[in-house]
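Chain and conformation:
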Amino acid sequence: MLNPLFVLLAAILWGMTGTAQTFLDNNVSPIAVATIRSAIGGGLLLAITIIFRKINFLNWSWKWTILAAASIALFQGLFFSSIRLTGVAVGTVATIGSAPVFSGIIEWLIWKNRPSGIWGLATLMAIIGCFLLFINNGEETVQASGFGLALCAGLSFAFYTNISKKLMAQEDALPAVAMTFSLCTLFLFPFSLSNGFTWLENMQNLWTILFMGIMCTSVAYLLFLNGLQKINSSTAVTLSLAEPLTAAILGVFLVGEQFSGLSWLGVAMLLGGIVVLTIGGRQSRLHNKLKP
């Protein structure tokens, strides 16, 4: 049960990202946020891996690391940009709600690993839950371009998860996260220069980005990759639907957003999908072990 729990804890930390970003100045570039977040998250872990000699650069799995870094860099740029256009709730729900579908398709078509019926049921429940949360914002105008960026972000996250599964077969979680986000920073940096980083002089911005870099990146992705070692990519991405659930709950209790009855039903459906996937997957593994 620890592996699904690790992924759930990671998703809860990710769910705090959108809320945390609301504490940043409105004129801060989304790409600059992604760059500094990755630099803090990856740089901190890279320093730890070098100090404790947990990494071997000569025999490193560069192919999967570069692909993982490129996909997570693309994900962050698309995700933070979509939030600026659609709002935190809609952008998060559209991104993470679409990711399990994309992940299941990628896992099936590329890796020839057909998702289970339990995954299908849990994903359907979770997507319905996301939709019910989405219509809570129905009175607001959702920009089509922002929604499209969110779907592309979901596809990028699905690619990252599937690629990371391959990376974790060859490397430990700590150096894998360190290398992935350090490279991600290098990919994002040229695109963030035009807006500069003077916004970091504001203490509120600085403390917010430190939280996003350490807790929502370093700790969250360490938990996610540790959990990913023993479960399928599609299962991990479906479990990460706890992210919009967390964002929704924080919106109610911290930001003061109002939820309709349908929205609370959506929360229940999201929780139900996660429970079905976690318990159903465990029973399926036990059944397979007991088979003669």
